[in-house]
Amino acid sequence: MSIMSCFYRFKQILFVISCSVIFVVVIRKLYCYNSKDNCLTYNTPMVISTWAFTNATTKSWSVLNMSGSAIDAVVAGCTVCEQEQCDGTVGYGGSPDENGETSLDALIIDGATMNMGAVGHMKRIKSASKVARLVMENTKHTLLVGEGATQFAIQMGFKETNLSTIESLNLWKQWKTNNCQPNFWTNVSPDPKNYCGPYKPNLLKNSKPEPNLVDTKNHDTIGIIAIDHEGNIAAGTSTNGAKFKIPGRVGDSPIPGSGAYAMNTYGAAAATGDGDILMRFLPSFHAVQALKNGHNPTKAAQLAIDTISNYYPDFSGAVITVNKYGDYGAACHGFDRFPYSIANPEHNKVALLYITCTKSKSYNYNLWSSLL
Question: Block means of pLDDT (10 residues each) for the chain, length 372 residues?
Fold first, then answer.
């Protein structure tokens, strides 16, 4: 056989191989285009949580590794923070209100069934996330608040206990000594910037709303999202609210679509920060809808944050987002940077990540910082 014939034969073989590869690629693309999940790779099970609460994330991850459900993982992680009093913003002994009392908010969402349960302004019960789960599983309601939430918890077998500690009471006494500064009143008299209440409406004055301080010691929430081995998604939150809040205040954390949201078909999101601002925009719901519209998790979180900062440029907050494949992202505004923790098959352990936040206009933090 001549060299030319061998070369010609070799070209034929290459042509056949090339055509075969192209055929396989085209068939796979057509199959993936018409398949339910477009042949995307799942990086699940997984868990992600707001802030540097790695003990909570570790607990959630261990539950998933023991074949626990996404709901089990979320509740277990939130419970760890409630017990450890994470940053003083979760669980007992933190964020006293104007009367010196601590109350708790929590939310649990089942993304498989869209069932959910929450408690708000619940006093004298430590395990807020566990009570929220029972609201979801043992009632036809979504949210129980105040004394009614406490009585429900007692009926479900939880023990009453004083949520105040020496530290929280001392913080409250210091606040009272400092003429109740800072506080959440506006358009009242006497001037809430200089005096304690009681207050009366000041109908002649309409001051511009001012941002609340939100930082690592006053950020309102732990939010956790988990995807289990079955692909089911759950999300939840737990908090003791804002320091020196007006009694009766409920923030964004127990509000579905604000504190957290989850849908098996798209993904989940959780928000943290200035709850009184966040709940006006339902950022978690917004982020999940952005996933539905084809955005990746980081872009979905950023869209939710940008919507808020366009109206409140001095607001501080963050959103974490996960799609159903386990891809994740986050966005934030007002902080220098925002930490969150993640565990999945890629990391196989809890990893602490940071993102840089978009900036807000500067204003005086000194008064709040002196009390933290």
Answer: 62 65 60 54 90 96 96 98 92 93 97 98 97 98 98 98 95 96 94 94 67 57 95 97 94 96 98 95 98 98 97 95 97 95 90 92 40 34
Phi, psi of 32 (to 5 degrees): -65, -35
Question: Which 8-state DSSP code applies to residue 362?
Answer: P
CA-to-CA dists, residue 105 to 130, 253, 254, 275, 283, angstroms:
11, 7, 6, 12, 18
Q: Using the structure block, give the residue that is written with the tokens 């993304």.
A: 111
| C-alpha to C-alpha distance for 215 and 368, rounded to whole angstroms | 10
Residue with tokens 């979320």: 74
Biggest CA pair distance of the chain: 106
Closest CA to 320 of 312, 309, 332, 334: 332
Q: How far apart are CA 118 and CA 277, in angstroms?
A: 19
pLDDT at position 258 is: 97
Report, as residue numbers or ranges, the catalytic residues. Answer: 221
Q: How confident is the model at residue 368, as a pLDDT?
A: 36
Give the per-residue pLDDT at 367: 35
Distance CA 207, CA 188 (A): 10
Burial call 329-344: b when 16+ CB within 10 Å, e when fewer: bbbbbbbeebbbbbbb
Please report, in angstroms and rounded to a whole number, the separation of the first and last CA atoms in the chain. 89
